[in-house]
Amino acid sequence: GDSVTQMEGPVTLSEEAFLTINCTYTATGYPSLFWYVQYPGEGLQLLLKATKADDKGSNKGFEATYRKETTSFHLEKGSVQVSDSAVYFCALSVRSNYQLIWGAGTKLIIKP
Amino acid sequence: GAVVSQHPSWVICKSGTSVKIECRSLDFQATTMFWYRQFPKQSLMLMATSNEGSKATYEQGVEKDKFLINHASLTLSTLTVTSAHPEDSSFYICSASRGSGGNSYNEQFFGPGTRLTVL
User: Measured between CB atoms, does B100 come within 8 Å of chain A?
Assistant: First the structure.
């Protein structure tokens, strides 16, 4: 069945470091891909998305490119800040009724 | 805009009792609402999808008689855990979407979650 695998956390980085959080997927058909972020004490928020191969989603300095050949959607940011500390979830959707299939989440800790 | 609230944020109850969790879309009408369950260090598991005014669609393996979902209005959905047991202890998250069908993705807006502990 459809599934999402993302790197385990926590990931601990210093401020201004380069960030990569890996995400790979297995899906039938042509999924849309998403990154959600959950800040402490808040609900999940859509960070970025890509709906077809080679699309690049971007928001708040984060980027992810939909790579069909490697079935990946890795999240990157060139220079992280303490305020980026959160849990990041990769997800996909292949069904017409908006259902999402989630990765396990990766906790990101940025130290000043 | 697009704020979703959940109440309560945490609840502790005795085994055998029922617990109701509310999910409200505060500034938009939610045609579709979703209920998820999240175990520690695991991904979100979709429990059910509900459309306003109709019965919820439950995912395979989710007991509909145990997890009662009501979506009586465009701004409110409730999840009632009936005869709760310690294994029902979990983090329950709802989300709401403005979409009502079709092939395009409509963004889900998430509540902050409810921590249920059954003693």
Answer: no
